[in-house]
Amino acid sequence: MKKAAIWVAIVGTAVVLTGCGKSCNVASVPAKNVATVNGEGIPASKYLDLVSRRAGRDVLTNLIEQQVILNWAKEEGVSPTDKQIKQQIEVLKRDGVYERQEKLLGQDAINSELNAMQARINIAKKISKVTDQELQSAYDMMKQRYVHGPRKYVALIINTDQKQVDDAAKAIKGGLSFDDAAAKYSDKRFAIGGGAIEIWVAEDQQGIPAELASVAKATKIGEVSKVFSLGQPGQPTNYAILKVTKEQPKSNLKLKDVKSEVEDAAALQKSQMDSKFTEELNKRKKDAKISIDIPYLKDVADTINNPPETPTGMPTPQPGPAPKAKAAPKK
Q: pTM score, two decimals?
């Protein structure tokens, strides 16, 4: 379903945080059993060991790279400040995704990701100034975050089987939470992190199905809608219910109103494309003294210390003077 991809992309216009989710958050794991099946407990230790073995390599690699960048920022005198992290959190809250990210990752993981991201931004801004053209381009790309009509933040349960959505609606009326109903009755393609899809919906928003916009407009904050259909030509009909959790008035923020935020976004994007930044980061990875105390993850150190070579990119064309017109041949 292509429109579902569009809806998920709308959520992704805010800062995207990486990680393995709550399953890697030890603080959220019970001390004894993580589940009980027919009276038999599944030990937390067994669960954590399997999580570590299956997802630990990616998580540990990410954490080590974060630390390399944080160390680099400290050497450059541009370590993230508490004020910068607070501003990043405020942006997540303004865009309506902070609570969802906190639920999926946990507050400690969010802070860790934001610190590493801000360190990268600060380094990138020191290496290369963001130009006015890059600033305007970044604003235009994110404009939907700043310029929109009145909108509502909705959680969605979607399934091609209408009975599943009907059952979800009945279960919610019976007292089941919307999130738990989403985990149980959503088509798994539309269950983000095991829960409902959550997006902003405005009447004038491109890419949002008219049926969804109409139902969201008619549903008050805190209420759950009736079951409605989402049809596409040539595609199976999907059925859905939604719950409105937040609403925002019309917004018309200009570039000057969000310049600092947009500059950070432009610098972050620039750091991911700048060969100078990548070369220096790879050098620091090679030089990093890494000691890993988990036997089956010791090879992660070798992976970090041997990053792939920076590909040689094509030079960016620069505008030059217009070619001179050829003189007319003499008669």
A: 0.77
CA nearest neighbour of 291 among 67, 114, 58: 67
Closest CA to 178 of 240, 242, 132, 125: 242
pLDDT in tens, 52-110: 999 999 999 999 999 999 999 999 999 999 999 999 999 998 888 888 888 878 888 89
Beta bridge partners of 192: 195
Q: What angle do CA 105, 109, 113 make, to 5 degrees?
A: 115
3-state SS class at 248: strand
Q: Tell me whether residue 38 is exposed, middle or buried, using C-beta atoms within 10 angstroms of its C-beta: 0 to 12, 13 to 18, 19 or more.
A: exposed
Give per-residue burial for 89-104: e unless 16+ CB within 10 Å, then b. Answer: bebbeebbbbebbbeb
| DSSP tag of 23 | G
Distance between CA atoms of 308 and 296, rounded to whole angstroms?
22
Assess contact for 256 and 146: CB atoms under 8 A: no
Q: d(Cα 240, Cα 228) in Å, to the nearest integer? A: 5
Q: Phi and psi of 234, rounded to 5°?
A: 80, 5
DSSP code for 78: -
**Alpha helices in 77-198, H assignment, sequence order:** 82-94, 98-105, 107-127, 132-141, 143-146, 162-173, 178-185
- Rounded to an integer, what is the distance from CA 106 to the centroid of its chain? 14
**Residue type at 302 in one-letter notation:** D
For residue 217, what are the contacts with CB-CB under 8 A and spacing of at least 6? 152, 203
Domains of the chain (ranges; CATH) run 31-128+274-305 (no CATH), 150-249 (3.10.50.40)
Residue 76, token pair as written in the block: 């450059």
